[in-house]
Structures are given as C-alpha cells and as structure tokens.
Design a protein that fits this description.
Elements lengths: L6 E5 L3 H12 L3 E6 L6 H6 L7 E2 L3 H5 L7 H10 L2 H10 L4 E3 L4 E4 L5 H13 L3 E4 L2 E6 L2 E6 L2 E5 L3 E4 L16 H6 L4 E7 L3 E2 L4 H7 L3 E9 L2 E9 L3 E3 L1 H17 L2 E6 L6 H8 L8 H8 L4 H9 L7 H8 L2 E5 L1 E2 L7 E6 L16 E3 L13 H23 L1
Parallel strand pairs: 1-2, 1-10, 2-6, 10-20
Antiparallel strand pairs: 3-5, 4-5, 7-8, 8-9, 11-19, 12-15, 12-18, 13-14, 13-16, 14-15, 16-17
Helix pairs in contact: 1-14, 4-14, 10-13
Length: 404
C-alpha cells in the first residue's frame, strides 16, 4: 500500500514562500500555503509597478559583494542552489521573456509583476498547491500550528513547515514582523529590524526644498567612506533617496546611528576630471547669469546648481568651483523609518538556522526570504536572494523528511 505524501505548510505567499511551494510540489509533496492577507505576493506586485527588477547580470564575485559581509558566505550557497541564470530560465519558463537593461539589471519584457504572477499561480494550481488567504499563523499548540481564519481558529499538523513571513518594511502589504515574539519564545535569536534601502534626512533650505523636492540628480557619483557608486539620487522634501543612496544605505545608516550624522559626497560630473572641468569653467562668462553659464559650461541642470548653492556662495576661482562641483558635501542627520524603507535589515539570525535553513531550536521548521537577517541594495539582489532562499529551504525540507 502506497503511503500518502508528506504535507508541508508554507506560511507566507511572497517570492520565497511561493518558490518553496513550487519546488516541494514538483517533488510530489502536498503543499498548503497560508497567507494572512486577502491576496498573495502584494509586495512583489508593488515592486513591479516601476519595472520588476528580477536579478542582475554581473559576475558572481561583484554580485555577492552587494550583500552585507556577514551574510555573503551563506548567500553564496543560496546562489549555488539557484543562480541568476536559473532565475532567468525559470521566469522564461513561465512564458515571460526577459531582457538586460543598460545598467545590467534584468527585467521581464512585460516589466510588470502581474503577468508573471498570474502564470506562476496557474502553474502552482496545476501542481496541486493549495493557497489559503486570510489565514494568519498565530503560533504553535504543542507540535501543531494554529491559524486565525474567517472560519475561526484552525489547527494544522503538517510534517514540516517553511516560514516565509517577510521582514518589517511595508507593513500595509503584510510585512510587519508580528511573528518575532513567537519565534523568540521558541528559542530562535532574532536581530532587531532596521530600515534598509531607505532615504536620509538633510536640512535643506526652505526655498531649495519647496522648489526641487521630487527632482532627480542623474548620472552622479556618490561616496561615503571608502565606497563610491554611480547612480541616481532623488531630492526629497525630507532629504535624499534613490538607487545610488540605497547602494550605500547600510554604511550610511550605521554611521548616522553611531555618530548622529554623516557626510555623503556627491560628484555632479563624474565623467570629467577636476582639471578638465576647471578648464571649461575658465572660459569667459559673458552676459550669462551664473546659473545659465554653469548650465552651458558644466552642463549642470537647475537642481544641481541650486544644490551647489546650498553649501554657501560659489567660489569665483575655476579650480575651486570645479572642486565644489565634484565634491558636494551633504550632511545626513537622520534615517527614515521602516515605514518608508524598501526593505529591512535584521530578522532571524543566520546562526539560528543550519545550512538547510532549518531552525536549530525547532527541528522541521525552516525559514526563508526577508525574515532572515541579511540585506542588499535594490538592483535585483533582494529578489534573487529571496527566491534562492526559498529553493534552499524547500530542498532542506525534502532532505529532512527523507532522513527522519
């Protein structure tokens, strides 16, 4: 007589949870996904509104260096299990062609997340995956799981569990870290959540803030400490944000939290040396206003010129003016909170799980995705690691079940 397949409960229907569910169902296991929100993958859909950045095309070594140093060794194992090439193949297997943008980032040609999600849910349904929305996990009752549902409390006794409950950013989309006390009571170490990929406060003058909030600074170079990145920043009413800022946000956050403030340096013309820029600025100004002359000679837009003036009167000497353009110092005085963060740092400590992502304090319970303590900038790195961790957790469940 053939025994019934083992049942696995996946709690959380984001990228990590759904990827784990697919992997398990393909292995012939019975999978039930519990999602406390009325619909699945809400954060993925939100991320896709501006273009769904799936992963990045750069080689593995620089790819890994995008993650915080403490997590790189672990994440290398995740990427060995499910690489950027594997992710692209998986997306295209769902009938969603991809392309590599000029920055090396990888997108589906449809750009949005919704076509991909529809195809994915259809595949999961075909594999027999059951998805229960409005099913909120409330903890354990002995070895059983308890859920708050529209039909009242439900008790489930799966053979294994994967927790993919998300981090602490975008609470309105389901990632509110309400699970932290439950796991701490179960003996798992959980690091305090902090904002990642987030903006920073700058004390703009009222005129600059009112005129330029919402204006991008394109093609700039940003330096903090010994790290320099090229990218884009966005002037915000509270300060500054954007992809270039997010690439440096971990170090900036640590510095601001430690010292109360930190200096970020912007190079508004990173394609020119100080000497080449000074030569351009040595040409006669004629009847042009200073702003118009800087637009012509240095190719600076109005926001960049105004940003220069935030640092005080502009020097008349071409060399000193060139140095100012290539070294705008911004004092960051605060960090925006979790409610404005794209992602979060903190969560279940990586030392609290084994290489299969099983909780050391709770055998048979695995964790995946942003609820684990790792962080990365935007650019495809967040999604890549989330998907890959779901694969690792699913493979870990299979190995654990087979070894029981």
């Amino acid at each position: 007589m053939t025994s019934a397949p083992a049942t696995v409960a996946v709690i959380g229907a984001g990228p990590a949870g759904l990827m784990a569910a697919e992997r398990l169902a393909q292995a012939g296991l019975r999978v039930v996904v519990h999602e406390r929100m009325p619909s699945v993958a809400r954060k993925l859909l939100m991320a896709g509104r501006g273009g769904l950045n799936l992963t990045h095309s750069e080689p593995l070594e620089p790819f890994l260096n995008r993650y915080d140093a403490a997590a790189q060794a672990r994440i290398k194992g995740w990427l060995d299990a499910f690489s950027p090439a594997d992710l692209i193949e998986w997306v295209e297997g769902l009938g969603q062609p991809t392309f590599v943008g000029s920055s090396g980032r990888v997108f589906p040609k449809a750009m949005k997340a919704s076509p991909l999600l529809r195809a994915w849910l259809a595949r999961l349904e075909g594999l027999g995956v059951e998805i229960r929305t409005r099913s909120r996990w409330t903890g354990w009752q002995g070895e059983a799981l308890t859920f708050d549902t529209p039909d009242g409390e439900q008790i489930e006794r799966p053979d294994a569990v994967i927790l993919a409950l998300g981090g602490a950013s975008w609470a309105k989309l389901g990632s509110d870290a309400a699970w932290v006390p439950t796991l701490e009571n179960a003996g798992a170490e959980v690091a305090v959540f902090r904002p990642a990929n987030v903006g920073f406060d700058v004390a703009w003058s009222p005129n600059f803030r009112d005129r330029f909030a919402g204006t991008p600074l394109k093609g700039v170079s940003l330096t903090h400490g010994d790290r320099t990145v090229r990218g884009e920043a966005m002037i915000a009413a509270y300060g500054i944000e954007g992809g270039g800022i997010y690439a440096l946000s971990a170090g900036l956050r640590e510095a601001v939290e430690r010292d109360g403030s930190s200096v970020l340096t912007l190079d508004l013309r990173p394609d020119l040396s100080v000497e080449a820029l000074a030569q351009r600025l040595s040409k006669p100004r004629g009847k042009d206003s200073l702003s118009n002359w800087l637009r012509k000679a240095a190719r600076l837009d109005a926001a960049s010129v105004a940003l220069l003036r935030e640092g005080g009167p502009l020097p008349a000497d071409p060399a000193k003016l060139a140095a100012r353009i290539k070294g705008v110092a911004l004092t960051l005085t605060g960090v925006q909170g979790l409610s404005r963060a794209i992602s979060s740092a903190g969560g279940v400590a990586l030392d609290a799980v084994d290489d299969r992502l099983m909780l050391k304090a709770r055998p048979g319970v695995f964790a995946a995705g942003e609820m684990l303590d790792w962080e990365a900038p935007t650019g495809g790195y967040l999604l890549q690691a989330s998907f890959a961790s779901g694969v690792v957790a699913a493979d870990g469940v299979r190995a654990w079940l087979n070894g029981r």
